[in-house]
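G., the chain you wanted modeled:
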Amino acid sequence: MDAPREAKSSKRIKAEYSELKLHPHNGIKAGPIDENNVYEWSVNISGPPGTAYEGAVLPAVLTFPKDYPLLPPKLRLVGQVFHPNVAPDGTVEIPILHVTGDDPSRHDSTQERWSPVQSVEKILLAVRGMFVHPFEENIANPQADDLLKADKGMFEETVKRSVSMVAAL
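Predicted structure as tokens:
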């Protein structure tokens, strides 16, 4: 990667971080793990009220590519969070984290996918929103999806167990 592109990338990430500090969102805290490395952020998402995730604080790592914003960052929840859009390794699979041509489900609309006009703020809001309304076309954990559809009560019990284990980390 060339230095000018990386400098632009770093500048954009810093600007988005400044914007998040100026205008924080309820239930979302995010920022660089180390002020000397803007490419890796610590994220904490509070489980939305009225969901099985309510009361949980879900830690994640947001990793930016050096050519951000041309490519989206990757978001990985720490621990085993049981959710249809969260792979067993914690990787979050939602449309805004996919670019055209990188759509595992092949169902994302162009408007939902990543483009350089999107932002960290939009990603974090979409991730928090998926805990209320999972993205049905972006299934990363078929077991969670099947259980949600077959037995919502059992799904919610499983979620509560998974987030209590995350809290113990």
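The chain has one domain: 3-167.

Shout if anything looks off.
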